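User: Okay, second chain of the day. Same drill as before: sequence in, structure tokens out.
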Amino acid sequence: MTPLWKQDLAPVAGVPFQPDASYDVVVVGAGITGLASAYALATSGMSVAIIDAGEVAQLATGANTGKVSLLQGTVLSTLRRGHPAALVKAYVESNRSGQDWLAATAETLAVPYRRRTAFTYAQEDAGMPSVETEKDAAREAGLGVRRASAAELAAIPFPVASAIALDDQIAIDPARFAAALAGAAVAAGAVLHTGTPVRGAKVRGRPHVLTDEGRLYGGSIVLGTGTPILDRGAYFAKTHGERSYCVAFRTDGSVPEGMYLSADSPSRSIRPVGLGDGPEGWEGVVVGGSGHPVGRAASERERVEELIAWARRYLPVTEETHRWSAQDYQSHNLVPFVGAMPRSLGRVRFATGYGKWGLTNGPAAAQRIVAEIRGDREKPRWMTMLGTRLTVPADIARGAAENAKVGAAAAQGWVEAERTPVPVPRPAEGAGVVAQRGGRPVGISTVDGVTRAIDAVCPHLGGVLSWNDEECTWDCPLHASRFEPNGTRIEGPASRNLTHLS
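Assistant: Same drill. Structure tokens below.
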């Protein structure tokens, strides 16, 4: 499942890992947060190492829709429902700062982008109040949101009951931007190590990260890994992981120029791709949505097929050229966690909980992380406001509801595994099944003609994994760790691979 953005993009070359090397800052993760942090720190004169288990923009950064928007579905009204207007405004200011940074940096690095109007829309009449409430919250927070004009509504080929709009937002090829940013960080003196998983970190004595190839020392450590790979602070329980899907199509007719996101379910995201905001020579449309909590879908493939059927019904699409997915983490109170990790002596900083808006929240988080590491005295007001988190009853309720679902998923996984003892029939191509052997869940799958058995218990907190039939992965329904069919870790709070069984 290769994203459209990576079709002709050469990987950014890293250098061989040097055990026991020492830097001012070690940045774990070569996505938007890690790269933005590393670029700023390196250009400030600090020695920086960037280390990633995969390639540059391997996961969410290279697999999103490329929308850099301050109108974000119903985020602002949901946030306003339980928080003061000042906090919502600070959230908008932080995202504006991230958006401005991205635009300025793209221009510096000669990465093209395009200004488009962003729309939040209701698919049915029942969703219209949500759109109106979002408009009110956005205006209160200082955004120039307007109602979509009659002409704009008439040009939309899919069902729309009402819509609001924010002009002058940005569409960009996210993988191309990340590759340019990585190159700029290296040119400024940063060292890039790809294909090197980090298994943990230690902060006492000389702070360092742990890899299978040795240690890497840093005066400060930045975790830009989607969700922290350290459990200090239990942020895996303060956020939840969501997977969503994208399909890229060629078109044989006109598609509205705006970027669209539905306020009601099932979620629908429509983003045209043309000259200046996508791969060179590629024009069409990216349709996204059908999101769900990680590991808790009856069939991921059915969700993708539903998305494709919707696109073929309402848009002038022809050839499907790419399909892919991304994983995002959302905090229970919708405000990202950014800053020093608890019990790290101030030596580890992290960011998580962007709720699918990493292209604005990521650079904003990097700005705060960099300011703290450099010891900047002057900081924007939004950094202070968002850094003083206010927990309200609505946040507690959302967190309790999510953790109840986690508990139910944990129990259900073990119960269902007990119902199916080994041996089991060999799974069909692309299929996987969980059975039990000696009271222990075993995951058996067949991919590319190879049948494998792995320990189907997540090494993070013991959740029984479920099979993802669209991506052929083992996904944890508790805290969103994911693994290849052979047990290799892909992402999530788990830091170890699964055990391969004979």
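Residues 4-62+175-237+334-395 form a domain with the FAD/NAD(P)-binding domain fold (CATH 3.50.50.60).

User: Thanks, on to the next one.
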